[in-house]
## 1
Amino acid sequence: MALANELMNPSLVQGVKCVIFDCDGVLIDSFDANMRYYSRIKEQLGLPPLTDDEMSFVHTRTHKEAIEHIAPGEYFKKAWEAVESFDSTSLMPYIKRSEGLLEFLWWLRDAGFLLAINTSRGETIDAILEDKELEGYFYPVMTSAKVCEPKPHPEGVYKIMTRLQLNPQEVAYIGDSHVDEKTARAAGVRFWAYKDANLEAQVHINDFWSIKAAMQRSYKGYGQVF
């Protein structure tokens, strides 16, 4: 395990040409918004409040998987009706862009790195990127609506690599959950864990300032400066 900072061994980031980001918990802090959303769904169904296990599940899975988990069986149809009438824009004030992210993206882009997203979110990703001033940084943006098999299946990462003509050794995937860890492992790409020391990762990131400093020390565009 290596902690991202300006003293980190530069070989850990050597050869990376593309950084793939998870969305929730990495690009944005959406935990409060997600909990409010799924709590309202359960409340409308007359179900008890979210448990700790449910909170952990819904924050890392696709929308449909989350609804099925908190409203199984006969509750699912009514839950989905509540979903379709829900105004997702009401949650935007509870979603925050991660600190230091924008500066990290500026540097990556200017240094010549490719940036992409692989998320369990569906159609809501576009509104979030626009609201949090993150439009135009990422291509492609892979969502659960654009794959047959969502995370932890590696299909989304495979599609990104195919679109950008990259091999796994040239890709680093930043995620914050065991789902992301499994996705990266299945795709054969490097996994960099964001704010969770319990995950198995080549690099652990406490904040975006630190990983930016580590990569600045090691890179000038694609040319290593060891």
Note: Strands lie at 18-21, 28-29, 96-97, 114-118, 141-142, 171-175, 190-194, 203-205, 219-220, 223-224.
## 2
Amino acid sequence: MKLVAALVTALLLTGCVAGPDFRTPDAPAANRYTTEVLPSLTLSSAQPGEAAVPEMWWSLFHSPKLDETVRVALEGNRDLKVAQATLKQASELLGATRAARLPEVTAEASNGRQKLGAAFLGGFNLPPFTYYSVGTSVSYAFDFAGGVHRTVEQNAALAEAQAHEVDAARLSLTGNVVLQAFAIASARAQIRAAEGVLEDDRRNVELVRKAFEEGSVPRLDLLSAESQLAQDQTLLPPLRQELSAARHALAVLVGEAPGNWSPPDFDLEDFALPATLPLSLPSELARRRPDIRSEEAQLHAATAAVGVAAANLYPQIRLTGSLSQQAITLGSLFDSKNDAFSLAGNVTAPIFDFGRRRAEKRASEAALQASLARYEQTVLIAFRQVADVLSALEHDTQDTEAQQRALDVAESSLALTRESYSAGNTGVLQILDAERQVQRARMGVARARAQKMRDTAELVVALGGDSPL
């Protein structure tokens, strides 16, 4: 026992935690997302430690119907429930790993009947006997090399990664709900405009048919009017399919079957674009996006895994002790003369394993390099996504302005055509054609406005939503 104690003391004095210590990667050296200037955008930058968006980022669009739909989705979405349950699993596994750092105490009790052969006692033959035993045992592994410490660190990092995965699932869910709400509003607005176009087409056909029957226009004019009606009728089916798909997708997002739940009838007028677009600094993006934070935690876990593999190269020490009462009759089980105890130390050290442990350590180091590359790639993708959405918003602003100008011109043309008709200089067909141009311009404005709303939401999601810094 003195030898074991001396060995343990020496190892503890010289022991250390194996493997590298994790260090948070430096923020990317960038002060802007795009090289081109974005003059059409009004941006508001959040300073370090400040919130770039409200706590519920979707409230930027000032829609009570949207707020309620997001609330229902957060309560019922199945993917979010999967992420939350997986986080609970990771947390419980972390608790189980932490328990390995403490001594393990077990209670033991046994009862049996035994017959020992003569050879066991050197020629003496004992009759069969019954034995009883009650006691406890304690086992403790000395973590002088830090293997248990690094394992706890690894599992804690994995639990943290899963927590960020829950945040990512929540952000993805709320983003998809907002996008589907915008898709519904856009489809409804375009359907209304398309129905207006078709109504004008039908009026046009009736007028031309009447003129043809009166002999004032050739049959070619009637065919042209009917052809235009047939062509414009192709506008509605894809728009109605777009509306149905968005409604079905939103039902699934809130955790309901499409046949059991109907989303609100969102309209573009239900939403208001924020006056300024929230924008966090590039140096803060890695601290906001949950997918980047998850990869950082995975990198931490991979670093700890190197320490676990390194600790396996060192000797392992375990102490065990037991205290029990042993007797051959139940009545004398707790007599002091039946006390029994044991104390033992066990040291195992690798000598020759054909390079298995060192290969495992090299494999963990390669996994660490792969994890670092994944982290860096995730950061680059995040920067690209923000840059893409910023450029899209710049073009959305230009497109919205152009579509609005086209609508203004179409409405002015319609007003002049009506004045000309009142003066007897143009016919009713010119008025109907001008009305059709106005309806088509309204469809363009609706598409452009909806696209700008979608890209605004995607910008907030790309920046990490309302994730805390």
Note: Residues 10-15 have pLDDT under 50 and may be disordered.
## 3
Amino acid sequence: MNARARRARHGRLALRLALLSVCAWTVIGATPLLAQPASAWTTAWAASVQGPYPVGNVSLPTRLEQLFPSPESGARNQSFRLIVRPDVWGPQARLRLSNALGTRPVTFDDVFVGLQLSGSAVLKGTNTPVLFSGRTSITIAPGADAWSDAVTLHTAGAGTDGRKLAVSLHVVGESGPMTWHAKALTTSYVSFQGSGSTTADEREQAFPASTTSWFFLDAVDMQLPQGTRTIVTLGDSITDGTASTLNGDDRWPDVLSRRLHAQFGDRVSVVNAGIGGNRVVGPLDYAPSKPFAGGPPAGQRLERDVLRLSGVTTVIWLEGINDFGVAANTSVDAVQQAMRDVVTRLHAKGIRIFGATLTSAVGNGTPVDSAARETKRQALNTFIRTSGLFDGVFDFDRATTDPATGAMRDAFIPNSTDGGPGDHLHPNRLGYAAMAGAVALDALMTP
């Protein structure tokens, strides 16, 4: 065989080897050069909905009558710019809009998502249109919600560390009763009724009014590597962040998130499913026609607020103190049984659940009421610690209670939202940090 023939033969062999290598990478799933790591939707932010507006417990006393003169009519031909902080970021996102507590179909159009610059202004070049099944508008039936199409996030070279998303949407016509999350503890922005669509406008002048509640938007997903864990913190106002700093992102789930990211990077996302005033048991007949400020009971909202979120692997549940107040006066046995039911449903989906002990309410309310609630709280905490129901327990009670008095530690009582004296029920930002510090991070990340 001459040199020319040998070179041709070697060329054919090299080509065959290259093709075999490509096939091997395709079949085996090797990653060098050709294959891309698998990704999946992961919930990066959520806010459990309640209502309809104005039923709920807000961050601060606010009067929104100028924006929404009639709760029955709701929003009318006006735009919202909702500010949210994703716990993790990916190259693509999708949004879930909710009409869960509405009584009429509501139509949204001109939905945009971008990076917040400051206030209601969007960072130039990042405001990107969002579609729904390829269309610029969507009508959502009463009691329903809808996911958007995937949208590529544009950061304009700014990066995303510490950034917040600005999600802008326009309500076409009248919305009717509005689904919302009352206690956002985050400032968002609204235009006046009849002002039309201002969502494409990046300037702050397009949204002259503000609110500390979220409307219609209840989840944001990011496209992230498969195996990213979503941890849902399920609870009431103490998880929702009452008495923490307005716009400070220092609720206990926020502090927990920062601890987890410092140790495990972006392998985990923490989302908040707290509602101020929420209960484990009741009200049993919650509906738009029979609203309750605390939203639906935990079991009734579990499907929407936990099971239907993307990539959920773990739940931390802190709840029960509202069940023992004067208004509810629920028995400890009833709360325990409801907890068993919720844990059974989560375990059936392969989701681990950690119980958290209830923090002290000594000094909240009249002495008689406070003592009665304390007796029930102690009994439920014993159940949480010793029943074996949960996959693990985090002792928030021990982290925040003064053993000499049985009340919350003095340093944790003053209200960080308004600088007030506190209510002896809701910890401030220091108390929330102590709670987050009581969580064993390795337990959350162990399969």
Note: The longest strand covers residues 106-118.
